[in-house]
Amino acid sequence: MTEVEVKKTQDSLQSRLAQVIELLNRQRVVEDLTHRQEGHHQDRVESLVHRQNLVDLQRKLEDLHSADVAYILEALPLDDRLTVWQLVKADRDGDILLEVSDSVRETLIADMDDHELLAAAKEMDADELADLAPELPRDVIHELMETLDGQQRERVRSALSYNEDQVGALMDFEMVTIREDVSLEVVLRYLRRLKELPGHTDKLFVVDYDGVLKGVLPIKRLLVNDPEKQVADVMANDPVSFHPDEDAYDAAQAFERYDLISAPVVDKNGKLIGRLTIDEMVDLIREESESEVLNMAGVGEEEDIFASVWKSLRNRWAWLAVNLVTAFIASRVIGLFEGSIEKLVALAALMPIVAGIGGNSGNQTITMIVRAMALDQVNTGSTSRLMRKELAVALINGLVWGGVIGIVAFLLYGSWSLGVVMTAAMTLNLLLAALMGVLIPMTLARMGRDPAMGASVMITAMTDSGGFFIFLGLATIFLL
To answer: Can you give 303-372 as a three-state secondary structure string?
Structure first.
């Protein structure tokens, strides 16, 4: 990473984005003014002003870290995004492509020709190439593979052979290995001969002559121990390690649990084949968190906020269609009790309260269950215990808050029986919400689906229809 890349201003990201937008707006204003001018020198004036604004914008981008440029690109509409992208120096394309979100990366790659893609890819390590390869055109991938040496080509193929949610797809091949039968002084001399250490190197990996992992030597142990000591006397013999076919999210949780910065990846024979680093794990946790939020809301996949109308429609229509069906069912439930509502208009004013509180309670339950499942704190075998606990919470909340709204109903309409029905309906709907809040994610997990998929949509549908039916049904039986 160059000095330009690590140079940061004291401004916040929002401030940097605002400065870029201001330069883009200034360019558009100047272009508009020069177009209105009449005279022999109009084209020359326009060209000079246009070029000066682009130079100012390019200088601003050069002062920003690649991650900050990626943030700015994600926050700009497509036309402005491509304008800024064209001003980024070619040697930074690869770093920025790896930093932006998948949806924005798609728009940037579409704007690049094969030559530009090849130039950007050649600057990447094998693990980075594997991340980017699925989104590159086939002919570019084929040509790129031919330019790699044998080791790099094998590493890329190895990373591509794993699913994106496996450790092997995320492992890094750049690492420092040493032998256990040498002194710390020899290790220090070896490190001094290296041009630089791979990023996030907090430990060296100790292997035998067959490449089998024997342990790790933390850098802090290397620095504080007597240089005459042998590596075998100082190294840690039981490091946390992973296999390439393990679930990547489980590895991320281990990184968080054990405060890891890097960890070895070994094959079934114990041979060291790569390492995981904290930056990949942080990215994975963020992506999983974003995916969970999107899934609960019924959004199919990550979406570029400035995507075309048609693309956004395709991403959202499925669960909206489901929601439409469930809303129609809820409306038919209300239709069953039209006569009751006509006789007691207060029911129309109170029934949204029952449904709304039930929906909120259900979303609380389902959020807690999905989070616990994501952290491997519960599994489908815990369903009955969780259900008893959540039903108890719902019963107490229903009696307390149902009693409160029952008193309010009595004060508003002067009917104690209406207040009792309101309390009972609130309690029963909260019990329904708790039941569905546990069953929905557990059932999805048993089916091999993401427990968060459409969970918010489904729980709201259940508590709306159920709440209307319970409240209006009780009112019809006891009040009319």
So the answer is: CCCCCCHHHHHHHHHHHHHHHHHHHHHHHHHHHCCHHHHHHCCHHHHHHHHHHHHHHHHHHHHHHHHHHH
**In this structure, are 143 and 63 located in the same domain?**
yes
**83 occurs within a structural domain:** yes
Residue type, 58: Q
Range of 10's domain?
Answer: 3-165
Residue 50 has pLDDT above 80, yes or no: no
| Better-scored residue on pLDDT, 52 or 34 | 52
Q: What's the pLDDT band for 143 if we cut at 50, 70, 90?
A: confident
Q: What is the DSSP letter of 197?
A: P
Contacts 24+ apart (CB under 8 A), 214-220: 214/180, 215/180, 215/239, 216/264, 217/178, 217/187
Residue 207: what residue type?
Answer: V
Domain boundary among 165, 200, 234: 165
Q: Secondary structure of 17-47 in the HEC alphabet?
A: HHHHHHHHHHHHHHHHHHHHCCCCCHHHHHH
* pTM listed for this prediction: 0.73
The CATH number for 282's domain is 3.10.580.10
- Structure confidence at residue 248 as a pLDDT band (50, 70, 90): very high
